[in-house]
Amino acid sequence: MKRIAVLTSGGDAPGMNAAIRAVVRKAISEGMEVYGINYGYAGMVAGDIHKLDSAAVGDKVGRGGTFLYSARYPEFAQLEGQLAGIEQLKKFGIEGVVVIGGDGSYHGAMRLTEHGFPAVGLPGTIDNDIVGTDYTIGFDTAVTTAVDAIDKIRDTSSSHHRTFIVEVMGRNAGDIALWAGIASGADDICIPEKEFKFENIVNNIKKGYEKGKNHHIIVVAEGVMSGAEFAKKLKEAGDDSDLRVSVLGHIQRGGQPTVRDRVIASRMGARAVELLRDGIGGVAVGIHNEELVESPILGTEEEGALFSLNEDGGIKVNNPHKAGEELYK
Ligand code: ADP
């Protein structure tokens, strides 16, 4: 393979730039040319494609966001969209693609591979909700940001004997809440993967203040419900403490990536290039027990594929990711 491209797709995550940089530098060292595709699959179809040399990724390793921009482009799930993208890849002489994104983006990579353009997926999202990897690029940074914010909330919470509900991101996954909650010493952590009772939380709050605690921090994953709704239900269940809600929001998506995110992004980016160099596509790179692993994106469960086709043509997730699994290993 002489010429490859790289794109970021779906939600952005800190560390994506480090992955792009690694793809570019590794590919050049392997004698390949690299093109950047702006705005994910939308930019592929629009031909928003430009050559990246080594200098183009200078000073990018520590920058948040993605300098290739990201976009959602549902049309790529349709054959017409894919063929339009392939036309552009042919025009630029691109033979393989590295796709940095989530589950949806992986499906796009699978389709490209089926059409004869090997594509490799890298897990980029703060939510840590992608199958085939213990950790995603961006998760460590998002948790670090959340912990920093909760530490600050704790200061003010203690000064006023307040109860704080802190809503964190994660879509349907509780990983950010779980890790940030443990690391910040939260009193309660509520995640979508585990049932809880509001009455128990009300009791925890009461007992804590009776014992002389001067604050109570509850970390709630957005996949459970909004912080505002949680507060309403807590009051309905009998909480009489001085309650406040803080929604951390998009600060969790930005900022300089942590060392860990930079390193796993760099390792994964380099591995993606090695795979394309060897003509391998339709796989996603992950990290398992600190080692890089690759899994077929689509196939049978026995093959270790991330997704399988149901008899009715629907897509089934094999071994869905569960929040906190890696904590209990
Ligand atoms: P994420 O990659 O973070 O899961 P999305 O689900 O929004 O985010 O997917 C990102 C993009 O990947 C979509 O906007 C679309 O361009 C492409 N995509 C999603 N699903 C498919 C699919 N089934 N086939 C081909 N491309 C897809």
What is the first-to-last residue Cα distance? Answer: 39 Å
What letter string, H or E per element, gives the SSE order? Answer: EHEHEHEHEHEHEHEHEHEEEE
What's the main sheet like? 7 strands, mixed
Percent of residues in β-strands: 15-25%
Q: What would you call the structural class?
A: alpha/beta
Q: Report the principal-axis shape.
A: elongated
What ranges have pLDDT less than 50 throughout 5 or more consecutive residues? none
Count every beta strand, where a strand is a DSSP E run of 2 or more residues.
13
Can you count the helices? 9
Taking Cα atoms only, what radius of gyration do you get, to the nearest Å?
Answer: 22 Å
Widest β-sheet, arrangement of strands:
3-2-1-4-5-10-11
Global mean pLDDT: 96
Percentage of residues in helical conformation: 25-40%
Overall description:
InterPro entries: ATP_PFK, ATP_PFK_prok-type, PFKA_ATP_prok, Phosphofructokinase_CS, Phosphofructokinase_dom, PKF_sf. One of its GO terms (biological process) is fructose 1,6-bisphosphate metabolic process. It catalyses: beta-D-fructose 6-phosphate + ATP = beta-D-fructose 1,6-bisphosphate + ADP + H(+). Its EC number is 2.7.1.11. By secondary structure, the chain is an alpha/beta fold. The chain is built from nine helices and 13 strands. A seven-stranded mixed beta sheet has the order 3-2-1-4-5-10-11, with helices on both faces. Helix 1 (16-29) runs parallel beside helix 9. The longest helix is centred in the middle third of the chain and has 21 residues, at 139-159. The structure holds adenosine-5'-diphosphate (ADP).
